[in-house]
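F.,

This is the one I mentioned.
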């Protein structure tokens, strides 16, 4: 059994879910919602797991929350800025709630490639996965500057901070559940996925 990663993991759950038509973080998975499904999964890998959200919408579960400081606008950079502010001098593993296929081997692969990068992210042939990887909390000042300039472009932020990428072959592992059909297909296939 692998030793738990000593950095915090934060699951992003504060998006609009406009394409899904309902809040994806609350989608049902077996006897729990998608957030709690991801929380349980990540808790097997990381010593600490937190939920990034705009408000406490998980009334029946006492999940450790990091609330966005900006409660009116939606962008991953707003969430990241609040997360960076919550931690001091540490890496933080960031994962979106709608990326449920990521396996622990891939997370450990990223972890094992950490040196002194500002940001280390997953990359597949067709996509850079900006919400799957390690960000250092020292990115706080630059993220604040971006937001003060009303710049919410996460790709540009990562480029500015010289993000590094680790290549992965399996595109399906990093799939996002953006639409209701994606969710239904994933639910159907979930039991065949080895984690």
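My design for it:
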């Amino acid at each position: 059994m692998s030793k738990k990663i000593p950095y915090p993991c934060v699951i992003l759950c504060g998006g609009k879910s406009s394409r899904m038509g309902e809040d994806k973080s609350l989608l049902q998975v077996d006897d729990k919602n998608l957030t709690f499904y991801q929380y349980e999964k990540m808790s097997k890998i990381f010593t600490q797991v937190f939920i990034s959200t705009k408000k406490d919408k998980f009334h029946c579960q006492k999940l450790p929350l990091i609330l966005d400081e900006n409660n009116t606008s939606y962008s991953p950079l707003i969430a990241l800025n609040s997360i960076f502010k919550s931690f001091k001098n540490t890496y933080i593993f960031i994962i979106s709630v709608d990326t449920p296929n990521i396996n622990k081997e891939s997370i450990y692969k990223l972890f094992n490639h950490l040196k002194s990068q500002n940001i280390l992210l997953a990359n597949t042939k067709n996509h850079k996965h900006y919400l799957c990887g390690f960000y250092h909390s020292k990115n706080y000042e630059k993220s604040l500057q971006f937001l003060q300039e009303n710049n919410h472009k996460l790709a540009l932020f990562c480029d500015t901070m010289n993000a590094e990428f680790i290549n992965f072959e399996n595109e399906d592992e990093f799939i996002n559940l953006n639409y209701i059909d994606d969710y239904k297909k994933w639910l159907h296939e979930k039991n065949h996925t080895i984690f």
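The beta strands are 5-12, 28-29, 32-33, 46-53, 65-67, 91-96, 119-123, 128-136, 164-167.

Talk soon.
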